[in-house]
TrEMBL record:
<keyword id="KW-0285">Flavoprotein</keyword>
<dbReference type="InterPro" id="IPR016169">
    <property type="entry name" value="FAD-bd_PCMH_sub2"/>
</dbReference>
<dbReference type="InterPro" id="IPR016167">
    <property type="entry name" value="FAD-bd_PCMH_sub1"/>
</dbReference>
<keyword id="KW-0732">Signal</keyword>
<keyword id="KW-0560">Oxidoreductase</keyword>
<dbReference type="InterPro" id="IPR050416">
    <property type="entry name" value="FAD-linked_Oxidoreductase"/>
</dbReference>
<feature type="domain" description="FAD-binding PCMH-type">
    <location>
        <begin position="83"/>
        <end position="253"/>
    </location>
</feature>
<dbReference type="InterPro" id="IPR036318">
    <property type="entry name" value="FAD-bd_PCMH-like_sf"/>
</dbReference>
<dbReference type="InterPro" id="IPR012951">
    <property type="entry name" value="BBE"/>
</dbReference>
<protein>
    <submittedName>
        <fullName>FAD-binding domain-containing protein</fullName>
    </submittedName>
</protein>
<dbReference type="InterPro" id="IPR016166">
    <property type="entry name" value="FAD-bd_PCMH"/>
</dbReference>
<dbReference type="InterPro" id="IPR006094">
    <property type="entry name" value="Oxid_FAD_bind_N"/>
</dbReference>
<comment type="similarity">
    <text>Belongs to the oxygen-dependent FAD-linked oxidoreductase family.</text>
</comment>
<dbReference type="Pfam" id="PF08031">
    <property type="entry name" value="BBE"/>
</dbReference>
<dbReference type="GO" id="GO:0016491">
    <property type="term" value="F:oxidoreductase activity"/>
</dbReference>
<dbReference type="Pfam" id="PF01565">
    <property type="entry name" value="FAD_binding_4"/>
</dbReference>
<feature type="signal peptide">
    <location>
        <begin position="1"/>
        <end position="19"/>
    </location>
</feature>
Length: 512
């Protein structure tokens, strides 16, 4: 069995009664600042035992009643329903010491668990579990230090809240570009942000991780205090423990400019020309775009383009070609970052399932853009044939060749950081509703990536050597394609930091 199949099988086979027993032990081990929540459904007998509808016994034996509440559902919830599972219990630790107590118990009992920040993982089981769901929502501190020009952020925050709090101070720690994305999962995978062209990935601006190691030690990890672990945390997800807090470098940010433009089918050729020109000609590090193709309700392709400029007005020439194209919807203005992020809402109807898949290209050439449009026209009807309402979209993100040079140190991801070997990510997104279509949608996404790889090779782009971005990656991608030449070093660090592979009890990208 491939490693992702093994991981899914392990978690689902763990006996629910044992997981519940561990929940009881966790409840007894953590401080009063933290809380454990249980499902509320089908508890008639237990309600009687506890005497109130919002209580259930910790176990048949204990006689101790504990609250079941909406927190249980919220702690399990994800952006896509396919990433949500019903845990035996959910726990909201409030202190690093409680996280330490929890991880020690989970390791000792070999109980499957999950760690969730913003819940935007699009791979099933990456931040959900039938075992113990750890929600970091109580780690919500935002502390700006003007003198040091740093921002401390709790690992349970979403970026929208960070921007809203920092905006009046005229600073930013750059993270998610659309609403709802979590600080921790985003950062631990890399983090393409709106000012990446100027400052790098979000991992490039981390100064300190507060980490609870798989052995339960609470450590401040900096490039100086523990260079190996700092390297490993910078891009290798949850393999090395649970981060409770990050310290980021802060950057000045005032009003920004931009928003969303949508173009209909007849104007997409012109849009592609403008996009290809922007991708090769723009050198201004304050400018950035994320663009995508999808089909509208009538099955016709549309191009959506979110533009960003770090300043209230972009210099002439930067976005003019895009602005000159006829559009069917335009929401462009000078605005706050919060307003710009909110201009691209990403809320899905309840129950929507979905995966991301990713590819990296050396460059978004006209041939690649044509191929992406063709894929949209090909897969859009195919997924709708499988299930009415299912959607297929492709999102292109051109960045400057200097993006990966903002960090002079190595990071777990990406394993290539040379200016001469520029690569740009693609995010493929398919959504549907029925669990019975999970497998075929995954296969479609894999087939699409295989076809695009062929097109890229024909276009003179041997993209198989490029790093794939874990935060957009489909779970069937092997770790070699993500961590590449960094894998031996990461595995050696893992053997020291997590010899019992406690973090292997949680889903997420693994190193083997
Ligand atoms: C709508 C949408 C928009 C996006 N926009 C962007 C974007 O602009 N740029 C970009 O780079 N990416 C983007 N992404 C991808 C995003 O970075 C990943 O989905 C990321 O994993 C989300 O982080 P999270 O905290 O919300 O997710 P979660 O599901 O909470 O966590 C993701 C992974 O991180 C692990 N994890 C979470 N918290 C911790 C912790 N404290 N310690 C250890 N491990 C932890 C989890 O166990 C899980 O494996 C987007 C995704 C979506 C769905």
């Amino acid at each position: 069995m491939t490693s992702w199949k093994t991981a899914f099988a392990f978690a689902s086979l763990f006996p629910a009664t044992l997981a519940l027993q561990v929940c009881t032990e966790i409840q007894q081990a953590v401080s009063a600042a933290s809380a454990v929540y249980y499902p509320c459904g089908n508890l008639t007998l237990e309600f009687e035992a506890c005497g109130t509808e919002n209580q259930r016994p910790l176990s048949a034996a204990s006689g101790v009643c504990s609250p079941c509440s909406g927190n249980y559902d919220a702690n399990n919830a994800h952006w896509v329903a396919s990433s949500t599972q019903d845990a035996a219990c959910t726990v909201e630790p409030a202190t690093a010491a409680d996280v330490s107590a929890i991880i020690k118990l989970l390791g000792k009992t070999r109980t499957p668990f999950a760690v969730k920040s913003g819940g935007h993982a699009t791979n099933p089981g990456y931040s959900s579990t039938p075992g113990v769901q750890i929600s970091l929502t109580r780690f919500n501190a935002i502390k700006y230090d003007k003198k040091k020009e740093t921002v401390v952020l709790g690992a349970g925050l979403i970026w929208d809240n960070v921007y809203a709090e920092l905006e009046p101070l005229g600073v930013v720690a750059p993270g998610g570009r659309v609403p709802g994305v979590g600080v921790a999962g985003f950062t631990l995978g890399g983090g393409y942000n709106w000012i990446s062209n100027g400052v790098g990935l979000t991992i490039d601006i981390v100064l300190e991780y507060q980490l609870v190691t798989p052995k339960g030690d609470i450590e401040s990890v900096t490039a100086e205090s523990n260079p190996d672990l700092f390297f490993a945390l910078s891009g290798a997800g949850n393999n090395f423990g649970i981060v409770t807090q990050f310290t980021f470098q802060a950057f000045p940010l005032g009003q920004v400019w931009g928003g969303l433009l949508i173009h209909e089918a007849a104007d997409i050729a012109e849009f592609n020309t403008a996009f290809a020109n922007f991708a090769v000609k723009t050198t201004d590090p304050k400018a950035s775009i994320v663009s995508g193709f999808a089909l509208d309700d009538s099955g016709n392709p549309i191009a959506a383009n979110i533009m960003f400029y770090d300043g209230p007005e972009p210099p002439a020439g930067v976005f003019d070609e895009f602005l000159a194209i006829k559009n069917i919807s335009s929401d462009i203005s000078a605005r706050t970052l919060t307003s710009l992020v909110a201009s691209a809402p990403q809320t899905l109807p309840p129950g929507t399932r979905g995966y991301f898949n990713t590819m990296s290209f050396f460059e978004y050439t006209p041939a690649i853009l044509d191929a992406l449009l063709n894929e949209t026209k090909f897969w859009g009807p195919r997924v709708a044939e499988v299930e009415a309402g299912a959607l297929a979209g492709y999102h292109m993100e051109p960045f400057l060749s200097t993006l990966y040079t903002h960090n002079s140190s190595d990071t777990a991801w990406p394993f290539l950081r040379s200016e001469s070997q520029r690569f740009v990510p693609l995010q493929m997104q398919f959504t549907w509703n029925s669990p019975k279509h999970d497998t075929i949608m995954r296969e479609f996404m894999e087939q699409s990536a295989a076809h695009l790889t062929h097109v890229a090779n024909e276009d003179g782009q041997p993209i198989q050597q490029l790093p794939l971005y874990p935060n957009y990656g489909l779970f069937s991608i092997p770790p070699e394609r993500i961590y590449g030449t960094n894998l031996p070093r990461l595995r050696a660090i893992k053997a020291k930091v997590d010899p019992q592979d406690v973090m292997g009890l949680a889903g997420g990208w693994k190193l083997w």
